[in-house]
Amino acid sequence: MVRAEEHSCRSRLLDIARKGDTRCLRLFLDYHGLALLWSWMMDNTSPNKLKIQILDTLFALPIQNKTMLKDSKVMCIVEKWTKPRGDVMSINDRKDRFATIPFINSLFKLLI
């Protein structure tokens, strides 16, 4: 997965990861899968479709606490993605604004 440079390869790998059973997803987390996803999230050339797939994959992972998200720096990127550009909003304002998106809503529950 680390060598996947093309967005189409990353997209296929994310699809495979999302369809994995719980044991495989736990192993993905144990073997620094969040750090890998963070590196993909940092790629500024990623299209929005890939970003949505990354968020869907994060939603599928059995993340048990926000410490995992903080340690891997994934939470900071998700916060940036949910923040409108040029707009300063508190975390509670963002929570209300994105309450209809299940994954982001569950992340905000971990944040607060």
UniProtKB/TrEMBL annotation:
This is Uncharacterized protein. The lineage of its organism: Eukaryota, Metazoa, Ecdysozoa, Arthropoda, Hexapoda.
